[in-house]
Amino acid sequence: MDQAQATGSNVTASINGGAGWSFDGSSGGSYNFGALDALDGKPVDGATVEFLFNFSDFSGSMAIGAVGGDSTAREMNVFKLEQWQNTGKFGITLPGEVDYSLQADSVFDQDLHVIFRRNDDEGTIDLFVNGAYVETHADKGDWRLDGGWGYIGSSSSSTQDVPTGRVYGVASYDAALSDQEIAALYNAYNGPAADPHAVVTPAALDFGDYDSVVGPLDLAVTIANYGATENLEISSVLVTGVDADHFSLSSYPSSVAPSGSVELMVRFNTSAAEGTVRATLQIETNGANRGSFEIPLTAFAFEPLPEKAALLVINPHPDDEGLFYGGTLAYYSQVRNLPTVMMSMTSGDSGISVSDPADRFLREDEMRNAARAYGVKYEPIFARFDDGGSSIETLETWTQFPNTGDDAADYLSPFTGNPVEYTARVIRKLRPEVLLTSDSGGDYGHLDHRHTSAAVVAAYAMAADSSVTILDDEGNPLPAWAVTKFYVHDADFDDANHLGHLFHNYWETPYDELGGATAREVTQQGLLAHQSQNIDYVTRTYYGQAYWGGQYEPGELWSMLESTVGLDTFNVGELSDDPDFDNFPDIHHGDFMENIDLSLFAGYLADTNRDGLVDGDDLTLMLGRLGQEVPIGSVASGDANSDGIVDQRDLDLLHAANPDTDNDKLPDVWELAHFSGVAAADPAADDDGDGVSVGDEYVAGLDPAVADRIEFSIGDAPRAVYFTVPAAGGTGYAGLTRRYQLLYSPDLVDWSTVVREGVADGALQSESIPEDQPHGFYKLDLIVE
């Protein structure tokens, strides 16, 4: 293997098996992988791992291509290529941390060239088989192959993962190789690639934060033909998705000559955009290696702070929000879809050079980027109190505030710059149901952490005290607000002043809302935004490691300081997927929202159409009057909720938001279109008695009030399976696609054979049944994504 001749990237490790190491399914071998700095989880340019192998398919074994680790003591420090027997798919495993479940079918008893490419900028992993791109997967964890001695054909502590077959070589690279370089590597072993050979770069376009941008933003996409003789024909280029109207395209030629390329400019028009904007650039070609390309388009702007927050998280410095508070922000912002606000008491400026004024708030920018990664919709609040004695004049100081970490009982004193009054003002403005901060011990004794805890404890009382006047930015008095529940991250677990203890039970579970990742894994990606700290970050869970060798209480462990709705339920012996669970068996296992009335956040209390009415009120007024006081036929020009916007535009805006306030996987607008209210729709019920649950009716595009089914039959002339699956369209499907898989089973047990899959378009589909196929069974699996 002479990779240096095929790519300009540094080959950080290469092991050559020549004719191949042979494995019999029972024993492996150890080899030196060399230094592989690109896989240590730090924000680098990416990494690539290359495999050449031939595996045999045999019952009862997972076939492993390569396993690496620097010692038998670090079982987490491994990277495995798999061809899973039970799924027949390629895969990657980071043992003890995460599985990457890919869709590409495994191939046995053939020489294969397989590459996994990690794209750190996009947070994705690409799979290439025999030089051709196959699929992309969201990056869910660190590649921890740090170099040194590793293993081929087995893990360090077990032989259960040994393949049967041959491994010819393994190589690693310190960068994300280009499609062209990957094709060249394959060509070096297997001859020329398919012609015409289509390559489109980059894999995604991120227009970044456009909040302060005036005018359009332009980014380029390159369409290249790596083929040697045939022209690459470009048959279609278009932008699709709910926000497609915000993008426009430059002109482009209809073909690309061999070894040539063309540039396509994508323009994002910022003037009418709000919040996070998403669309997809679809490119169709006659590429023999790959014809279709889908390029995600994203642009980002923070939304205005909510009228009411479900959760207010107050941390001492930028990065503490992830280091100590675990998966809080990702879980509540994305999985629970609740308005969650971040606030940092300092800007983390201590130790940062101030020779350039632009550097003073560097860590604020990093925290904004982290917030985006966590999925938080709102810009973090920065109180800008002094960070550990910094002398930056533009920052407030913790004036007249005790530096001993006491509870600051003198919060009534009228002084300027007081952190208690500042925090109490934020609480009254946002009216959070739940408040989180550090405990009185300062997590690990840090003075700023202790000050933060004391300030928030005192502010909690001050905000609720109606005898204290606090003015808003316009000089108007803010009404008193009593936070419903108040928790602290628990380093003082045995503090007698705590009402009860909570083990947060939902941060080690993969969620669809997080792209199949866990809340902790998303937090890990957000922490990478804090680049100025130059630290190998690990979120604080029980098994997490401290970045300077200490060990703190896990991010799942919290104590309740105050509650107006009673104590959390005490549960013992509850099953949990969280690996930390068994270490804390005698406390409540749940989340912060127990006993909180989440109907307060119907429609997120957002105002999607900016009409002065929150979405929940818009929907209630509109659906309550349409068809009764207001004729349905007037929707194109009527104004049922009297907001000055015609009903059709209201419905379009609310439909595009697709809120799911009760977190039951059914969009509110779909529930309201078919039921008397959001709460009236039970996903598990079968209201129309047709044998299909309400949840499945939504996925299939059926009417939950009508006994209807997907058209599905087997015909004899010709012998084929016939089916019709409606396209995803209408109320509740904004920006979504319905996909199907036709599966075959010989025995109603093994459904691993995928006969056909595609995007549902409402057209009649047919799949011929082979004449020599034994009797068996067919079924359709549907998803909406």
UniProtKB/TrEMBL annotation:
Residues in the signal sequence: none
A single MF term (Gene Ontology): calcium ion binding
Segments passing through the bilayer: none
Domain of life, per lineage: Bacteria
Name by which UniProt lists this protein: PIG-L family deacetylase
Species the sequence originates in: Sulfuriroseicoccus oceanibius
PANTHER family associated with the record: N-ACETYLGLUCOSAMINYL-PHOSPHATIDYLINOSITOL DE-N-ACETYLASE, N-ACETYLGLUCOSAMINYL-PHOSPHATIDYLINOSITOL DE-N-ACETYLASE-RELATED
Pfam families to which the protein is assigned, alphabetical: Laminin_G_3 (PF13385), PIG-L (PF02585)
UniProt cross-references to SUPFAM superfamilies, sorted A to Z: Concanavalin A-like lectins/glucanases (SSF49899), LmbE-like (SSF102588)
Taxonomic lineage: Bacteria, Pseudomonadati, Verrucomicrobiota, Verrucomicrobiia, Verrucomicrobiales
